[in-house]
Amino acid sequence: GDDPSRVQRAVLEAVVAAAVRDGGLSAAQARRLLNVSCYEMDGLLTRHRAGIEMTIDNLERHTALARASVH
User: Fold this and answer.
1) What is the chain's alpha carbon radius of gyration, rounded to the nearest angstrom?
2) For residues 59, 62, 22 and 3, what is the CA-based torsion angle, rounded to 10 degrees?
3) pTM for the full model?
4) How far apart are CA 32 and CA 27, in angstroms?
5) Distance from CA of residue 38 to its chain's centroid?
6) Taking the chain (71 residues) in consecutive chunks of 10 residues, what is each chunk's mean pLDDT?
7) Do 38 and 65 form a contact (C-beta atoms < 8 A)?
8) DSSP labels for 37-59?
9) Separation CA 52–CA 25 (nearest Å)
10) How far apart are the C-alpha atoms of 55 and 59, rounded to whole Å?
11) I need a labelling partner for 62 at 20 to 30 A (CA). Which of 1, 19, 27, 38 fits?
12) How far apart are CA 69 and CA 71, in angstroms?
């Protein structure tokens, strides 16, 4: 059968993605809860069809984070 820890993680990710989609959690809160990078979070939200709308503020924040991680 499936590894219980993998099943638990998949369920947690689905619940968190639904909370982001429904507005109960921000993507940043979800990222901290799941302990993933912003890029991993974007992929997770896309897989769960819970993508967030990219605004200028989000784009600027992502750009700043990317630049900071390079240095």
Assistant:
1) 13
2) 150
3) 0.65
4) 9
5) 6
6) 84 90 88 92 84 66 74 60
7) yes
8) -HHHHHHHHHHTT-PPP--HHHH
9) 11
10) 6
11) 19
12) 6
